[in-house]
Amino acid sequence: MPKSAIQSFNKILKKCPKCDDNAPKELVAIGTSKKLLAHCSACGFSFDTAGRGCFGWIALGMFGVFALGGVSVLFGPKNFHANSAAESPVAEPVATSASAEIDFKAIVKNPAFYPGSVVTKEELTFAAILNGKQVGTFKVPPNTLVQLLSVSPDGTLEVAVDGGRAATPWTKTNFREAYSQKKLNSTVPSVNGAAQVSVKKILYTVVLREALRRNIAIDGRNLNEQDLIALGEQLKEENRGVSATTVLIYSDARAAEMYQRLNSLTPAETTFLQRNFVARYFKNTHTGTEEYEIHPLGMNGPSKTVLLR
Predict the structure, then answer these.
(1) Torsion of CA 284, 286, 288, 291, to 10 degrees
(2) How confident is the model at residue 185, as a pLDDT?
(3) Once rounded to an integer, what is the mean pLDDT over residues 204-226?
(4) Who's near 101: CB < 8 A, 6+ residues apart?
(5) What percent of the chain lies above the pLDDT cut of 70?
(6) Domain extents for the chain?
(7) What's the confidence (pLDDT) of residue 89?
(8) pLDDT at residue number 63
(9) Which stretch of DSSP H or E encloses residue 275?
(10) Residue 105 CB: number of other CB atoms within 10 A?
């Protein structure tokens, strides 16, 4: 960023015209100019934000204005957001100076070390997404385990839980501890002594959640042995601090939802559920059990037990 730029807490979602980067851009003022420009941290280019296709957010103390496609919605601590025109994670104000404690520019060069999940330290607001569109927002309390989707060079984390997404400063989560632990567990020495690791993150949606069980749905593109094994490793990492849990994995959210009415399914619905039930993760530290089995062709197809690392 130019040294003469005045940093702001404002963030905006707009593609960089120079490098086509889609990450959130910081709004800055160059020199004494009052005109705000979007600064691309990927290539260092600052550009005018005028034009269509601009989705942004700005924090205003206890309240804020969430702008989407020219429609602004005022919200406060107890308000539920109105429908929005497009999918966009709810963003928390990002104090860029705080990220100086961690070299995020170096971290983003190796996503393999990203932790699969982080724990919130404060209440966060999430955008509720339905069929690819934002339909409102919801809040999650502190100490909530959320899935980590991406990390930006300025220390902004994109996280997800229960089908919702949010962008938040890393300081509002336990990212530092989770990242250090993941890097320690993932690093293995290569022949030349350099750290080598290959980890793929699988995005999923939590369809049903109970005290000791979750039903999740994955994209059909991940319905292969390699991605299902990667998902198992991811679930193992995400549940490292959990004493007992069962995760049932489906390739269709409708099948995951059907589980709660197993005794009343029609024969066609039963077949549909069985065809889309593709994996199961089970953990119980009291018995010392941790199991992961996959069956990409459905529960009646070939099954394989995977020994997680």
Answers:
(1) -10
(2) 62
(3) 88
(4) none
(5) 69
(6) 1-51, 61-199, 202-305
(7) 56
(8) 35
(9) helix 267-276
(10) 13
